[in-house]
């Protein structure tokens, strides 16, 4: 029997709960909702953070390698000894094809893909002026050789992905890697999508704050300067309306990709994975960016649907983005490389506890560390030698306080819980190779 095809879609800055099917009553994501209804939505998936402000880079390295953020890359360069997901499928007989954003090194890209179109080697850009390259084996993809199209990045990438699917006639299975730059700023959705959201009707998140209550070490970074202080309700509503418009536009593009699969008769033998590199605050806790370890930034969407995947399931277990690699391997019958540290979620999507995680952690530079179990979450902040940040703990009971509003760390009755989680944090740091123990 022919192995299933794989379509892997990665968004940029898509927060875990900015999906209608995840409980957001405002955002319109009909195609992603339909994908979730046909497959499994992992409701508690986390990124691992990174050692740079540009979190896209380490998060994507984690996805590609299935390895801890502290072991998978040095800056943009993924460790050359690590197996990569598209590379692994390529060696297993897949035709691997890339569209859109690649924010890691070009050597890793070259060993991963045998084709590609409308490639963007960068972090962010004006969505109507993205510098693009077409695939070249061993290509250096120099900036001066880039070309531009007079169309929105989401439409450019969608068109390239649909064209690949429409023209694919080879016998071997394919992996299509489609990486959007949406909904990353500058948030400039086409007018018809922007018109879907009236700013004054956008609800404020329950954890909206005009300013973050203490120095977390990154209050002046670029992302935080996208809005003035204090953050006003009107400004936060506008940012979220623009964010929703970008998501809905991207959702429409994903719908076109799904229709093309159906029209070509490929849908029944294709696994579709949708995820993101990390989330975004947009007014939560007085923050605008992703350089923090609150759930709005560390939790990401993850939907898996298609061949061999149960329909209509929601998995609430703690999961991590490094788990995507071995999951796709298991679903395609591809051996998992020895370098992979993630755990396959194939059993979890069928209701099994096999491989279940008791905790997940995340890091941001040397400034912040997080550990989380099924109910409790601890964030540890560290003041650097040059005076950035604050030496501080936060403890949240996520069962009673899912919006992370009430810090319990200073209450005597929670002292034992703080010590327990600090121990778990240290063990996690040892496990993942954190140099800032």
Write the layout of secondary structure elements.
Blueprint: E1 5-11, H1 30-37, E2 39-42, E3 45-46, E4 49-50, H2 56-65, H3 69-72, E5 73-74, E6 77-78, H4 85-91, E7 95-101, H5 106-112, E8 115-120, H6 153-167, E9 174-179, H7 191-194, H8 233-263, E10 270-276, H9 295-298, E11 299-300, E12 302-306, E13 313-315, E14 319-320, H10 324-332, E15 360-364, E16 368-372, E17 376-381, E18 392-397, H11 415-432
Helix pairs in contact: 6-8
Give the ordered list of helices and strands. Answer: EHEEEHHEEHEHEHEHHEHEEEEHEEEEH
Which structural class best describes the helix and strand composition? alpha/beta
* Strand element count: 18
Low-confidence stretches: none
Shape: globular
Nearest-integer average pLDDT: 96
Strand order of the largest sheet: 8-7-9-1-10-12-2-13
**Main sheet: strands, sense, barrel:** 8 strands, mixed
CATH class bucket of the largest domain:
Alpha Beta
Helix content: 25-40%
Gyration radius (Cα, Å) is: 21 Å
Beta-strand residue percentage = 15-25%
InterPro entries: Alkaline_phosphatase_core_sf, Sulfatase, Sulfatase_CS, Sulfatase_N
Domain Sulfatase N-terminal: 4-333
Organism: Paenibacillus konkukensis
Cofactor: Ca(2+)
